[in-house]
Amino acid sequence: xxxxSVTKAAEDAAPEANDLVVxxxxxxxxxxxxxxQDIDLTIARGExxxxxxxxxxxxxxLCRTINRLETVDSGAISIDGKPLPQEGKELARLxxxxxxxxxxxxxxxxxxxxxxxMLGQIKVRxxxxxxxxxxxxxxxxxxxxxxxxxxYPAQLSGGQQQxxxxxxxxxxxxxxxLFDEPTSALDPEMINEVxxxxxxxxxxxxxxxxxxxxxxxxRSAANRVVFMADxxxxxxxxxxxxxxxxxxDRAKDFLSKILHH
Amino acid sequence: xxxxxxxxxxxxxxxxxxxxxxxxxxxxxxxxxVAVAGFRVSPVPPLRYFGTAWVTLMxxxxxxxxFLIFFFVVPEILFPGMxxxxxxxxxxxxxxxxxxxxxxxxxxxxxxLGQAEAARSIGMTFAxxxxxxxxxxxxxxxxxxxxxxxxxxxxxxxxxxxFSNAELFGWQKLMSDxxxxxxxxxxxxxxxxxxxxxxxxxxxxxxxxxMEVAR
Lengths: 261, 215
Ligand SMILES: Nc1ncnc2c1ncn2[C@@H]1O[C@H](COP(=O)(O)OP(=O)(O)OP(=O)(O)O)[C@@H](O)[C@H]1O
Ligand SMILES: [Mg+2]
Hints:
The structure holds two protein chains of two kinds. Helix content of chain A is 36%, strand content 24%. By secondary structure, chain A is α/β, with parallel strands linked by helices. Chain A has a single domain (18-257), classed as P-loop containing nucleotide triphosphate hydrolases (Rossmann fold, 3-Layer(aba) Sandwich), CATH 3.40.50. In chain A, helix 4 (129-142) crosses helix 5 (158-170). In chain B, 85% of the residues lie in helices and 0% in strands. Chain B has helices at residues 3-6, 8-40, 45-60, 63-77, 84-110, 113-121, 126-156, 158-161, 168-178, 182-213. Chains A and B meet through helix 2, strand 6, helix 3 and helix 5 of A and helix 6 and helix 7 of B. Chain A: Its EC number is 7.4.2.1. Chain A: It is a peripheral membrane protein. Chain A: It holds the Pfam family ABC_tran.
């Protein structure tokens, strides 16, 4: 239990310098499909936002536009005051500041766990090998997979792989971490070990955007829940408000479905 | 009497000629092929167009025609005074690079998209993503087709003989002009080629086995 109900009281008066990720009027199409419709979303430094919503509502796409794995058709996205640049070296540099954790882990299959966590430090941050290894080992210990350092990803359980993926992202010292359904490819008994790592991260003050249906996590770690449906942000509220007393019909309907499972 | 023993120095020169052209044009084909494959999957449209054009042009031009262009057109308008060896290696290397490119590209396509996305998400550039994450994982699927491509290259090097290069197949012509019985001549030439192609497939099999052991 930490900072559970830090409501965004000063919603519109939020000082600009404290805004880390700002999406304004973002639109995106996949062909005829309008996946993101006029998205306005501001995430403050240190804030933990959970994005929730039915399948196909555009949650993954939203995450992916924030580090420009997907381009947007219109609107602006800025990170720490800087607008996302065009594809190229500068974008690469900015991406290093935005950690991303995927549903399917995506650890580099031809590298050991340790190398996975060292690679970005050495090639992107230009850290020297020794420092990179030291930091990698510290991070791997922190997520509880230190003893697996010399194994290949395929030799690890899903939960362990996902924790390595978190360590790999953290190794870049990101300003914000994006999680796209980090536990939905995991067997139930492994979900908690990953959520615990994420909870610890939230307690340490990391800015996080988390797409998840794990209500326990949302209630214990999130400052805000963003509910998406059909490419729009339908509702924003504190976790307690959202789960016990959703305002929109869309959210009520959605919650009744996931709660009955 | 014995066509090989009587003419061994010429045979040796021909063998060395074939090995040299094969080696040099393989190197050219490999480097160019990988680079053009990179172009073909690059996010930069002009590079992609260039890659597609290169493959289409090189792969669909008959090799003999390519040799003719390299020997009679290129020296006229571009670089006069290049040796037949260089011209032949370039023609053969460029031609083969289109096949190498396509083999590498199909290898790239077997690597799950998530690998490249993960690499980009930690801030790697396109070139780094390709070099450090995608290509190493593509290698395993690319090696077997490359073996066939380089064997085909070895045999294609015979065309260079028609363009004043000393190589194995040229030795055959020399011998039949001298009036030797053509059957043993062909057998020796075939053995010469077999030595080279067996060496290539052996090397590649070794490479494949080593990649299986790793990981
Ligand atoms: N690359 C793509 N090309 C075309 N359509 C796409 C692409 N990616 C996603 N879509 C479509 O866009 C819509 C939103 O997809 P998105 O993955 O963002 O949804 P989501 O909310 O993450 O859903 P889920 O809960 O299933 O992960 C879906 O209808 C999907 O089919
Ligand atoms: Mg999704």
